[in-house]
Specification:
Blueprint lengths: L5 H8 L15 H20 L13 H14 L6 H14 L6 H22 L4 H8 L7 H15 L2 H24 L15 H22 L3 H9 L2 H10 L7 H18 L14
Helix pairs in contact: 1-2, 2-3, 2-4, 3-5, 4-5, 5-6, 6-7, 7-10, 8-11, 8-12, 9-10, 9-11, 9-12
Length: about 280
Amino acid sequence: HDQEQEAVAEAVAEHYSPLGPGDHCPSAPLSVAVALADKLDTLAGFWAIDDKPTGSKDPFALRRAALGVIRLIVENGLRLPLSDVFAHALAPFGQMGLVDEPAPVIRDLLGFFADRLKVVLREKGVRHDLITAVFAVSGEDDLVRLLSRVEALSGFLGSDDGANLLVAYGRAANIVRIEAKKDKAAFDQAVAADLLEQAEETALYQALEAADGAAGSALAGEDFAAAMAAMSALRRPVDAFFDEVMVNSDNPALRANRLRLLSRIGATLSQVADFSKIEGARR
């Protein structure tokens, strides 16, 4: 009626969309930009004044706003790093003197979005612990990439190699934790290759070196299936290590090195996810 461009009229009409799980999600670029800007500004403003949802109370529909942002990003395949977006959204409130230090506010917002994402994915049958495990890696805040990682991790853990490696990881982490507490020491130093006496130790060390390199390259190229395949190659050398190697050797140097080797398993796996957050890892 006012002779505006069609894209402008459409963006005005879709300003508040999506309002709920059954509502239409905008896909036109201008509509997506306006809908995102409105919701992100609302969330940043309420976080700036520390007025967040508590319990079941959410009078300003902030959970709905976050779910709307998630749908807009995921359904449109937007590569949008949330930390950067939140920093931009919070900047005007910093100029008003409402936000002294944005970093903790951004972390809190990311946690809020992680919880909303778990709700969305749980309804689709995705395990919430896998979301937590992937979110814990390097502050992953690209939702499209995160969902690809979760899908690959879910497929990996559904395989025999993945399920068995998860149990082996739990066993290794438990041993390291117990011995570290006993010794009041950490075992996160580099493994000394010259102290690897048994063939199974050497094989595990070499497998970890190979998995580190292969997974790193795959992750850089966002080939998450290949990263999981690199991890699956660890299953047999890990099993062989536990079958044949006595970790608590009478030789203190060998014992410490073997504990560092077990610690390295978790460090290698942490490239793809924090396995300590996954249900089924033995504690």
